From TrEMBL:
Species in which this protein is naturally found: Thiohalorhabdus methylotrophus
Membrane-crossing segments per the record: none
InterPro entries associated with the record: DegT/StrS_aminotransferase, PyrdxlP-dep_Trfase, PyrdxlP-dep_Trfase_major, PyrdxlP-dep_Trfase_small
Pfam families to which the protein is assigned, alphabetical: DegT_DnrJ_EryC1
Coiled-coil parts of chain: none
This protein's record includes keyword Transferase: yes
Name of protein: DegT/DnrJ/EryC1/StrS family aminotransferase
Taxon lineage: Bacteria, Pseudomonadati, Pseudomonadota, Gammaproteobacteria, Thiohalorhabdales
UniProt family annotation: Belongs to the DegT/DnrJ/EryC1 family.
Assigned keywords, A-Z: Aminotransferase, Pyridoxal phosphate, Transferase
MF terms (GO), sorted A to Z: transaminase activity
Length: 336
C-alpha cells in the first residue's frame, strides 16, 4: 500500500505542497474530530509552531514532563522560552496531573505539554479544570476508546510526529491539530517563509507529499495497527507474567483503559540495564532505553530512576510469533 502511494506521488511530479498533504490534514482533523490540522515537516517543528500559536514567547515558562524526549525541551528553547520539568510519579512514566498543576502554579505557567508516554494516557481534566492551556503530544498514543476508536481532541492542541518508528510512521513529518482557528492560521503562516518578511522563527517547516502519502497509508489503517500492537502486548504479558515479577522488584507495564501499546517496557531495578541490553543484542535481540534524559537528577530523581530501570522490548504491528518467542527466550535466559 505504502509503495504504491509513494510511487503515485513520484509519477505525478508534484512532490511538495500538493493534494497528499491536504488529504492528510483533512484525515487528521477527522481522526480527532477537530476543526483543522496542519501538516509540518517534523514533530519538533509541530510542537514549536503550536506553542507559538498558543502564545508562548521568549521567557515564557512551559511545563513539560521530566521523563521525555529532548525534542520537547528543544521546541521550547527554540522560542527563547523556559522548559519547566515535572517529575514522573513513583513507578510510572507520566507525572501525576496534580503535580503538573502544582508546578504550573509555582512557576506561573499558563501552558503545559503532556505526553501519552509509550501510549499510556494522561487525564487532562485536572489540568483543564485548573485553567491551563494543554498541548497533547500524541506521537506515542492518543485518547482512545476501549472499542478501538479515537476520542475527540481534549487539549487545546495536539501535536504528532510521523518519524519512522512512531505510532503513525511517515519517515519524517508531524502535524498540529486544534479547534482554535487563530492557532490554525498562525501555524499555517509560520510553517513557510516563502514571499514573507524576514522572521527568525519562520523557517522551512513544510511537509512534502511523499511523507504525507506514507503517513496517510498508516493513518487509514490506524485501528488495525493499534489492535495488532495490543495483541502483541497481550502475548508479552502472558509469556512474561510468571517470569518477570519473580525477580526482585521487576515489573511489567501497567494496563489502563484506552491504552495504546506504542512500546512494551519491562522495569528491571535489580539489573545493570546496559549489560542486559548488550546480552540481549548478543542473543540477536535489539532493545533500548526508550528515553535519554535532559533534566537534572536533582529536579527529577524519579525520572532518572525510571531511565535506569526501564527496558523497551521490540514491539511493532508486524512482529511475528517466532520473533516474539526469541525476545522472551533471550530475556528469560538473562534474568535467570
Amino acid at each position: 500500500m505504502e509503495t504504491k502511494a509513494v510511487a503515485e506521488v513520484v509519477q505525478s511530479g508534484h512532490w511538495a505542497g500538493g493534494e497528499r498533504v491536504a488529504s492528510l490534514e483533512e484525515s487528521l482533523a477527522g481522526l480527532f474530530s477537530a476543526r483543522g490540522a496542519v501538516a509540518i515537516g517534523s514533530g519538533v517543528g509541530a510542537l514549536r509552531l503550536a506553542l507559538m500559536g498558543l502564545g508562548v514567547r521568549a521567557g515564557t515558562p512551559v511545563v513539560v514532563p521530566g521523563y521525555s524526549c529532548v525534542a520537547l525541551a528543544n521546541a521550547v528553547l527554540a522560542l527563547g522560552a523556559r522548559p519547566v520539568p515535572v517529575d514522573c510519579a513513583v513507578g510510572e512514566v507520566n507525572p501525576n496531573p496534580s503535580e503538573i498543576v502544582a508546578k504550573a502554579q509555582q512557576v506561573e505557567a499558563f501552558l503545559a505539554v503532556v505526553v501519552h508516554t509509550f501510549g499510556q494516557p494522561v487525564d487532562l481534566a485536572p489540568l483543564k479544570n485548573a485553567g491551563l492551556i494543554v498541548v497533547e503530544d500524541c506521537s506515542h498514543g492518543m485518547p482512545w476508546n476501549q472499542d478501538g476508536t479515537p476520542r475527540p481532541l481534549e487539549g487545546d492542541a495536539a501535536v504528532l510526529s510521523f518519524y519512522a518508528t512512531k505510532l503513525i510512521g511517515g519517515g519524517e513529518g508531524g502535524a498540529v491539530v486544534t479547534n482554535d482557528t487563530d492557532v490554525l492560521e498562525s501555524v499555517l503562516d509560520l510553517r513557510d517563509y516563502t514571499d514573507k518578511a524576514a522572521m527568525g522563527v519562520r523557517l522551512n517547516d513544510k511537509m512534502n507529499d511523499l511523507e504525507a502519502a506514507l503517513a496517510q497509508c498508516q493513518l487509514s489503517r490506524l485501528p488495525s495497527l493499534v489492535e495488532a500492537r495490543a495483541e502483541r502486548a497481550a502475548r508479552y504479558r502472558k509469556r512474561l507474567s510468571e517470569m518477570v515479577p519473580s525477580k526482585a522488584g521487576t515489573s511489567l507495564p501497567p494496563e489502563y483503559p484506552g491504552r495504546i501499546w506504542y512500546r512494551y517496557t519491562v522495569r528491571l531495578p535489580s539489573f545493570d540495564l546496559d549489560r542486559v541490553m548488550a546480552q540481549m543484542l548478543a542473543l540477536g535481540v535489539q532493545t533500548a532505553r526508550p528515553v535519554s534524559l535532559w533534566v537534572d537528577r536533582a529536579d527529577c530523581p524519579e525520572a532518572h530512576r525510571t531511565e535506569s530501570e526501564i527496558l523497551s522490548l521490540p514491539l511493532y504491528p508486524t512482529l511475528g510469533v517466532v520473533e516474539q518467542d526469541t525476545v522472551v527466550s533471550a530475556l528469560r535466559q538473562i534474568l535467570s
